[in-house]
Amino acid sequence: MELNWVYRRPHYRVRDGALYFLASTRPVTTMSAEELSTWEALATADSRESLRSRVGPGADAAIARFLELGVCDEVGSFPPGRRRAIVVEPHSDDAALSVGGTMWLRRNELEFTLVTVASRSNFTSYFLSDRDFFKVEEVTGIRNAEGAAFVRQLGGSHRALGENEATLRYRDEDWSLQFLGSHRVSVSAFNNRQALEPDLARWKAALRPVFEQLDGAELWLPLGIGNHSDHELARNASLSLLAEDPDLARTSLVRLYQDVPYDSKYIDHLGRVLRELTNAGAIVLPEQVSIKEAYQCKLELLSVYASQFKVPAIEHGVDASSRVGAHGQERLEHLYRLERRPGRLSPLRMTLDAPQVQVVLPHVRRWLKRHAGAPLIRILAILPPGRWHEDVRLLTASFPAATFELYAPPAAAAEADAVHFPRVEVHHVPAGAGAWARTALRLALRRPSPTLILSGPRYLEARLFGLLGPLSDTIVVRAMDHFMLALNEARRSPGTD
User: Fold this and answer.
1) Is the bond preceding 385 in cis, omega lying within 30 degrees of 0?
2) How confident is the model over 335-372, as pLDDT tens digits?
3) pLDDT at 194
4) Distance (Å, whole) CA 79 – CA 155
5) Which residue ranges in the chain fall short of pLDDT 70?
6) What is d(CA 15, CA 207) in angstroms, rounded to the nearest whole number?
7) 38, 131, 422, 463: least CB-packed within 10 angstroms?
């Protein structure tokens, strides 16, 4: 297949005759006059033939160097009459990570439309290196351009639905380094919490027109494996639409795909999601696709998503996922043919932390009955809540007579201080186990009050802190989401515990 259309990758900027990656201060390369002319001519994609006529014979050498550096892609034509396939992904990169090898192998058979739901973003790898690169419109443009660049190499097209990814649901504005530094742990906690009903409704509304316009095209959907709320949202929104409206995708072949790299890390969750589908009446037939011959091509395609990762940084996870179920013989990607769609599914039972919620539910149910009229409730947030502004609403409704004392370490202070509510008092606790022990001891000497401890990984320490105040009726959970999901369930179904 002759490749003759050339596209610039969206990450690179020319400054003073050199090419730079995004906000980097170190140039990728310096450019000759002909290379600079060729780069400028590629502001819009062009064919080699046109570039030769516009720039001169030096265009070929410039393109060859750009391709070697990985700053351009060259794409050719594809067979006419390919069947259509719609691939839904939570973020720009999830489809490439999860089924990029399968898509590459089937590029001459299927014309892919890649649909990114949470296409509005401020997340890049600069989150991890404390670089000030948080302009929402700039990052969104880059990430959508990456999605388009990936699927273009398969002869397909990209569609961005414009929903906010989790970071922007936490705070929808251009962040600063200071904001990220003070909210980093809270943002991480937020990302891993099950999304709220209004978020699910928005994602369903965004996806409905896609499903209504399938016209027989194949539909590939994520299974939503792992701890990221956006993956859950994409799965729950998609399957809810299929369950609620039998006419949607009625003439389409529907496939579900395992989320890479999460499927190798959360194997129990994968099994539980598949069981919940079966229990809800679905028939899902596994389809293992050997990507042994396409694996290196998949890694090359992943290099398009350079704003998110460098391939060596994520290759271990991609490799681990490719070996799930392969027994050392092949590299695989896993899809499931949906022969019969499920009935209504329970988002709670399908969430990663459903087992932990079920464990804590009877304790929360009894705790709620005992303290529904409590005048004071203490919350020790060793792990930040992640969604405190929403949690306050349910807490105050569940305990209408209570004042809440929130004890927050530095990692939770910014989130806690941002919520101003007359029945909430925020108390700052210095970092470290010693400070928490002193706080717990001090509270044990005060009047007993029902106490909730959000332990995070310090579960055993938190249990010991709770023993310091044996009359305070302390309940310890690892994350606020476990408690709030259980509290919601307890309010809906009081039970007899």
Assistant:
1) no
2) 999 999 999 899 999 999 999 999 999 999 999 999 99
3) 96
4) 9
5) 1-3, 496-497
6) 40
7) 422
Rg (CA), the chain: 26
Return d(Cα 69, Cα 29) in angstroms, integer: 9
Can you give the pTM of this predicted structure? Answer: 0.94
When the candidates are 1.20.120.1730, 3.20.20.70, 3.40.50.300, 3.40.50.10320, the CATH number that belongs to 79-346 is 3.40.50.10320
What is the edge-to-edge ordering of all strands in the sheet holding 12-15?
Answer: 12-15, 18-21, 27-30
Level-2 CATH architecture, domain 354-492 = 3-Layer(aba) Sandwich (3.40)
Structure tokens given for 126: 């600069």
Same CATH fold assignment for domains 79-346 and 354-492: yes
Cα distance between residue 160 and residue 233, in whole Å: 16
What pLDDT, on the 0 to 100 scale, is given for residue 471? 78
Main-chain phi, psi angles of 402, to 5 degrees: -90, 145
Strand partners, 85: 112, 218
The pLDDT of residue 57: 84
Q: Which residues contact 106 (CB under 8 A, 6 or more apart)?
A: 85
Written as six digits, the tokens of 293 are 């011959």
Residue with tokens 């794409």: 75
Alpha-carbon span 77 to 478, nearest angstrom: 53
CA angle 310, 315, 319 (to 5 degrees): 165
Domain boundary assignment for the chain: 3-75, 79-346, 354-492
Residues forming beta bridges with residue 12, ordered by sequence position: 21
| Cα distance between residue 333 and residue 316, in whole Å | 15
